[in-house]
User: Which sequence fits this backbone?
């Protein structure tokens, strides 16, 4: 094959066609090194649009009265939330104010714009919600106040969020529902570390644990909960999951919508070391160098 002539034809197509054609071309690592940076950029943009759609994600999980209860208990201080985002030059929206002052029966509509505030709200929930299994949490010990998820939570009335750990019955769960939350939490991971959701040592772990509790209480089954964890993690770690989508397409021939959320959320693909070993290394081998990007584990 004349590599230069083949890529020249690809570059004349629309971005979506470019992405599709180039992915097929890059299926051979030997040929991947010849791909121009401009075409690789189109591939990354297409992968991001697939994993983290600009149109957002319509969740089946509602915050219900959980945030109201957290405000009442002092776990969330609305004035501190407002001050934080004002300092950042992004004053809280009317939607966020409503979430802290009114019950929210409508399922969450997650977008690139509101993903960060949902991390913070769900962080408080996962941290403070009382579950019997939290007695076995790795957080539950002498170092409780020193984790990013506890000492880093400064948006409540108390200076250190460790005082709120497992303290309030915010989301009522049956024993069966709690067992479901625990099972999924032990089997799902996040790219900022190597810990499971149950080991909620950072904001993303706490947030996903809070989401699971809400979903289980609202009747979602195991498959539905895995799909929700993948959707929320994708919006919280967009660069990681855009590249994971690219990996599944280029290396396995699997479209993102057909990827198994249980597999994607496993340590193999969603823990920090698993992602580096399986996704990043394979994309580099194929000439699809991962772009830089990530998420902070603070407020």
Assistant:
């Amino acid at each position: 094959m004349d590599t230069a002539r083949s890529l020249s034809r690809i570059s004349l197509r629309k971005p979506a066609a470019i992405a599709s054609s180039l992915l097929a071309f890059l299926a051979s690592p030997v040929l991947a090194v010849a791909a121009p940076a401009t075409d690789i950029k189109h591939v990354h943009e297409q992968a991001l649009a697939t994993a983290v759609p600009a149109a957002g994600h319509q969740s089946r999980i509602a915050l219900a009265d959980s945030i109201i209860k957290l405000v009442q208990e002092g776990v969330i201080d609305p004035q501190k939330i407002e001050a934080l985002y004002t300092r950042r030059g992004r004053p809280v929206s009317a939607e966020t104010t409503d979430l802290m002052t009114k019950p929210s029966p409508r399922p969450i509509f997650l977008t690139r714009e509101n993903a960060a505030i949902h991390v913070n709200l769900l962080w408080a929930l996962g941290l403070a919600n009382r579950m019997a299994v939290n007695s076995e949490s790795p957080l539950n010990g002498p170092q409780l106040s020193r984790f990013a998820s506890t000492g880093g939570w400064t948006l409540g009335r108390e200076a250190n969020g460790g005082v709120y750990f497992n303290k309030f019955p915010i989301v009522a769960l049956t024993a069966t529902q709690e067992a479901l939350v625990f099972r999924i939490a032990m089997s799902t991971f996040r790219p900022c570390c190597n810990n499971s959701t149950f080991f909620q040592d950072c904001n993303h772990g706490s947030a996903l644990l809070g989401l699971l509790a809400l979903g289980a209480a609202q009747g979602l089954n195991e498959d539905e909960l895995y799909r929700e964890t993948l959707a929320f993690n994708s919006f919280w770690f967009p660069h990681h999951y855009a590249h994971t989508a690219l990996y599944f397409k280029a290396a396995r021939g699997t479209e993102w919508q057909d990827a198994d959320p249980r597999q994607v959320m496993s340590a193999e693909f969603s823990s920090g070391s698993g992602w580096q070993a399986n996704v990043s290394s394979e994309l580099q081998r194929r000439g699809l160098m991962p772009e830089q990007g990530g998420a902070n584990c603070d407020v």
